[in-house]
Amino acid sequence: MAAFDPWDPAFVADPYPAYAELRARGRVHHYEPTDQWLVPRHADVSALLRDRRLGRTYQHRFTHEDFGRTAPPPEHEPFHTLNDHGMLDLEPPDHTRIRRLVSKAFTPRTVEQLKPYVSRLAGELVDGLVARGGGDLLTEVAEPLPVAVIAEMLGIPESDRAPLRPWSADICGMYELSPSEDTAARAVRASNEFSSYLRELIAARRKEPGEDLISGMIAAHDEDDDRLTEQELISTAVLLLNAGHEATVNATVNGWWALFRNPDQLAALRADHSLIPSAVEELMRYDTPLQLFERWVLDEIEIDGTVIPRGAEIAMLFGSANHDPAVFASPERLDLTRADNPHISFSAGIHYCIGAPLARIELAASMRALLERAPTLTLAADPVRKPNFVIRGLEGLSVEVG
Predict the structure, then answer these.
(1) Which of 47, 95, 219, 345 fits a disulfide with 90 by CB distance 3.0 to 4.6 angstroms?
(2) Domain 74-309+343-401 has CATH 1.10.630.10
(3) Does the pLDDT at position 151 exceed 80?
C-alpha cells in the first residue's frame, strides 16, 4: 500500500500510477491509516454505488454505539447539523422525500432555461480575461461562473455573494481524509454563518416569494402536503452551492491544465468545436474532480472473497475507476473523441448528482467561450496543485492571450 498515500504531495500531484497498482493487486484493500476499504475497479465502484447494503449514513438504522462508531465532538455540531440534513448524506426514506421535493423546483426545464444566461455570463468573463491579456483562469472564469449561476438560481442577491466561495471552501475541507481541528473549526464557523444568512433569506422569500429556486423549494409539496423543513431547505441550498462551486470549478481548471499538457487534443478541439460535449465528458473522466466517495457498510458484504463487516467504511476511488483499462481503452490517454465513456464522476444510483445537467451546461459554456473568444490562449506558468486529495483541484491556472 506504500504507493497510496493521500498526504504525500507527489501522490496528490499524480495518483493515477498508484491506482493502477491497486487495481492490479486486487478488487479491495484495507488501508490502515484511515481504517477504510479501498475499492479501485470500475465494475465494483459502479455496483457498490447502487448497493443498498451500503449507505451515506447509518443513523437511520443504528446509533453511533450500535454501529461501533464514536459520535462527533459536540463542538462540531453546527457542521453536522448542516451536512446531515442534505440529500447527499441521507438515505431513504428521508433522502427519497427530500430529493423528490427538490426535484419539483430543480427541473430539467428550469436548468435548460438557464442556458442563455450561462452562455452570456461565460462570454463576459472571457472577454474580461482577453481584455487584460490573460490572468488566472480559476479566479477570473472558472470560479465566478458557477458561483453566479447557482446564486442566481437560488435568488441570492449579487451584493451578498462575496462570502459564498470562502464558506463553501471551508465547509468542504471536512470532506478530506482525517481533517484537522483547525479545518473543523473553520467548517463550523462557515456552517454557522452560511446557515444564518440562508435562514434570513428563506424568511424573506416566505413573505415575498419570487421565481427563484429557494421560493420554489419553499412551495414544493407532494400529495400528502409534505414539505421541506427549514433545516432541509438550508442544507439543500448549501449542498447545491458547494457542489456547484467545488466540482465545476475544479473540473474547469483540471480540464484546461490537461488540454495544455496534450496540445494535439487542444488543437483538435480548436479546429472542431462540435467536440465540446464529448470533451467535457472526457476531461471529467481524465482528471476527476472528486477522487473518493465514502459509504458505510450497513449489512455485511463480500468482495472477491473478502468479507467486509457491518460498521466498516468503504472508500470508492472514482479517479481509479475512471482509469480502469477493463472499461476504457488506453485510459491514460486523453481522447476527446472517446465515444464510449461511462465515467462515474457524477456518481450513480440514488445519489447521482442532481446538478449534473447544470454542470455540463456550465462546463460547455466556458469551454466554448474560451475557444471562440480566446483562440490563442496559452499557459503562462505551470500550476500548483492544491494539497487536497479527495477534492482535486489547482491553486490557480495562469494563462496568456496573445
Answers:
(1) 95
(2) yes
(3) yes
